[in-house]
Amino acid sequence: MSTPALLEVEGLSCRFGGLLALNNVSLAVRQGEIFGLIGPNGAGKTTLFNAISALTPASAGRVLWRGQPIQASRPDQLSRLGLARTFQNLRLFDSLSVRDNVLVGLHRWAASPLVDALLGSPRERQRQRQLSQRAGELLALVGLADEADLPAAGLPYGERRRLELARALATEPQLLLLDEPAAGMNPAEKNDLCDLIRTIRARFDLTVMIIEHHVPLMMRLCDRLAVLNFGERIALGTPEIVRHDPAVIEAYLGSSR
Ligand SMILES: Nc1ncnc2c1ncn2[C@@H]1O[C@H](COP(=O)(O)OP(=O)(O)OP(=O)(O)O)[C@@H](O)[C@H]1O
Ligand SMILES: [Mg+2]
Hints:
binds adenosine-5'-triphosphate, Rossmann fold, alpha/beta, six-stranded mixed β-sheet
């Protein structure tokens, strides 16, 4: 219980006109855990990710990274701190190859002196080879090694999701926010994704925050979960605690979704 929090959300509210999409939400994500966020459609899950990753301004509250407020940071500053995410609506570069989509994520490590880049110096060529090799390793990890040279547009949906994951990993994050990474996957693919998330957590010493509607999967995967409903955090705890929480059963698990 003494594991320090990597990320804390304190009294966070987000308002869109008359709609309070997040209402005074607090939670803390501990270093190394897989922290789940569940709740019905429109509960505010993506809005919470957007507020954490500085894409949506909060109307009240704070976000702390290792105890330091970050809610005024720019997305690129958060990336340098070690925060990466995937999107519910995929954001891939369709006309680029699968490998080049990962290289976009690696770009952060690719900054070369201009003269090296212009002259195509041996040092620059070596750097490009290293980056390409690193992209290949990440693609192998997510099971896309054979697709590296195909255009991203040609990938089936489940593989596009895994490509987004590889690209997010390329930034070498400490905290990875995954917004419905299993959407559109069949049950076998969902299971594989669970294994993959555990593998990457162990290999990269990651902390993971994940949004997913498939409740049984979340109960198996997550160390702890928070449940949102109409913008409010209605439960927080281990899968065992959340599963038996009457407010959750009423608001979410008992619903017909
Ligand atoms: N940019 C925006 N402008 C206005 N309203 C928004 C905006 N983004 C989200 N909302 C509203 O805020 C509420 C929460 O949306 P959000 O996308 O966070 O829900 P969610 O829990 O991620 O739902 P889902 O499971 O369907 O992805 C919804 O009512 C949504 O319509
Ligand atoms: Mg969402």
